[in-house]
Specification:
Pfam families: Sel_put (PF04328). This protein starts with a helix and ends in a 7-residue tail after the last helix. The protein is flat, with a radius of gyration of 16 Å. The protein has helices spanning about 5-20, 20-35, 40-55. It has about 60 residues and is mainly alpha-helical.
């Protein structure tokens, strides 16, 4: 495996692990469905996600 390919794989993994890729996917979907509405900042997105999780609890072990 080349160094570039390895670095790309590590970058992908870290973006998935930290949730950064999730925000990017949300932005793409938001622009597709609401092209005229402003895209929330990452901080606003995290607030929206937290409110949604609190309002729609799922069964968890902890």
């Amino acid at each position: 495996m080349s160094v570039r390919r390895w670095a790309r794989a590590v970058r992908w993994y870290l973006r998935e692990l930290t949730g950064e890729a999730e925000y990017d996917r949300y932005c793409e979907r938001h622009l597709r469905h609401h092209p005229l509405a402003p895209v929330p900042t990452p901080r606003e997105y995290q607030t929206l996600r937290a409110r949604h999780r609190e309002g729609h609890p799922q069964s968890r072990c902890c």
